[in-house]
Specification:
Layout (H helix, E strand, L loop, with lengths): L1 H12 L8 H7 L2 H34 L6 E4 L4 E7 L3 E5 L5 E5 L3 E5 L6
Antiparallel strand pairs: 1-2, 1-5, 2-3, 3-4
């Protein structure tokens, strides 16, 4: 409530703000909201959406090139070796005695020999 009384006091007794240049009028007008939303969307796109899409495309390329003997990391955190692959599923060997069938979408990362996880 204190701020409202201060605002009324300033509006009633204060001098009118000086008319600024075209830049001040632009950022004070209704078109500034549209520009700010556009700017925020552009920042979100280049910082979040675009890099995420690039990572997704890289993973899809690696999954398309998946073959027997590759080491993979699943979304559940299991590191396994690929035994066989078809269009939608992959059979992964976790241990000498344990083979599990996973959907290819459950493979989070293809581990290369130089990469440690």
């Amino acid at each position: 409530m204190l701020f409202v009384s201060d605002a009324w006091a300033q509006a009633a007794g204060g001098a009118a703000p000086a008319a600024g240049g075209p830049l001040a009028q632009f950022f004070g007008g209704p078109s500034s909201t549209i520009v700010m939303f556009g700017l925020m969307f552009a920042i979100m796109y280049f910082m979040l959406i675009r890099p995420q899409n690039e990572e997704k495309k890289k993973l899809e390329k690696k999954l398309d090139a998946l073959q027997k003997g590759d080491k993979v990391l699943t979304t559940s955190g299991i590191v396994a070796t690929v035994v066989s692959v078809d269009k939608e599923r992959a059979i992964l060997k976790i241990n000498d005695d344990v083979k599990v069938e996973f959907v290819r979408a459950a493979i989070a990362q293809v581990l290369t020999p130089g990469e440690k996880k």
